[in-house]
Design goal:
alpha/beta
Length: 297
């Protein structure tokens, strides 16, 4: 397949604020152990073995109880033997799962990140991504790095991908005005019968949808409509990442909650009576988990 390999001066950054990608630290990023301290991945591994592996930090493993990776991957039918594209992998929380799983099971992991042009921060971030993942094939295998942006020309050769997954990104594309491009590009990349999996912060159906999703929350029906417009068929929804304690009406949007846990606005102001502990107790957001399929020809 065609691969848009990026240089160390490139970047993949996950937007940690509403709207377009911004130059802020990625909330998913974690300082990895030195490569010399990480044992090479075994030749065969299942999801449970990958989740327990020492290349995942204890802090990353602690988030499994809220991110539910084993159940989420099972729902999306990910075994590691497929060609899988993750859109905007950020600091690599899921990279540490997908890449070794693909290496051990004969699959291909493609990390489709931001177009890095014009941002020194993103260039530095990609250097870290490359150093941590791309430069450690003994653990993470041979990672293909591509680009997804408003101007990118597809993130894989048409009809070559089994699975496209994205986690908590649709609101960013709504803010940037190119959500439809993501679904169109995903449809083009997938083989007939291929799966598109979307996890996104869920706005209650009774709340009004901001077209730019400035709060970070999106109606489930909005995501389904974008997918249908691109040609996808809806398969099933899972409540594996649901959080009924999340009311989705927080002072700083979804970023009030962990893992960002914002306590002040861009001007340094905190609302009167703000209690960070109450938002920490909610945990990570209520998230929809949706599976779509590209119809068989």
């Amino acid at each position: 397949m065609r691969t848009f390999l990026l240089t160390a001066a490139s970047a993949i950054v996950l937007a940690a604020c509403g709207g377009e990608a911004v130059d802020v630290p990625d909330a998913d990023a974690a300082t990895p152990p030195p490569a010399a301290e990480i044992a090479a991945a075994p030749e065969t591994m299942d999801v449970a073995a990958v989740l327990a592996a020492d290349w995942r930090s204890e802090a990353e493993k602690a988030r499994d109880s809220q991110r539910n990776p084993a159940e989420t991957l099972a729902f999306f039918e990910v075994d590691g033997d497929e060609t899988l594209v993750e859109i905007w992998p950020g600091g690599g929380w899921y990279t540490k799962i997908f890449a070794p799983l693909a290496k051990a099971n004969g699959g291909t992991y493609i990390a489709a990140g931001f177009d890095p042009v014009g941002s020194e921060f993103r260039a530095n971030a990609m250097a870290r991504f490359n150093e941590t993942y791309v430069s450690n094939p003994d653990v993470y295998g041979d990672i293909d790095v591509t680009v997804f942006s408003a101007e990118s020309d597809g993130f894989a050769e048409p009809g070559t991908v089994d699975t496209v997954l994205t986690f908590r990104n649709v609101h960013n594309w709504m803010s940037g005005g190119y959500t439809d491009k993501f679904f169109t590009d995903a449809y083009a990349a997938l083989k007939p019968g291929g799966i598109l999996g979307v996890v996104e912060h869920r706005l209650p159906s009774t709340a009004e949808q901001d077209p730019q999703a400035a709060s970070g929350y999106v109606h489930e029906d909005v995501v389904k409509a974008f997918a249908a417009d691109a040609g996808f068929e809806f398969v099933e929804a899972s409540e594996v990442n649901a959080n009924p304690a999340d009311t989705a009406d927080h002072p700083f949007g979804v970023w009030t909650l962990p893992p960002v846990s914002r306590t002040e606005d861009r001007d340094g102001n905190t609302p009167d009576g703000f209690e960070a502990a109450s938002y920490a107790a909610i945990g990570e957001s209520d998230r929809m988990t949706l599976k779509f399929v590209k119809p068989a020809e």
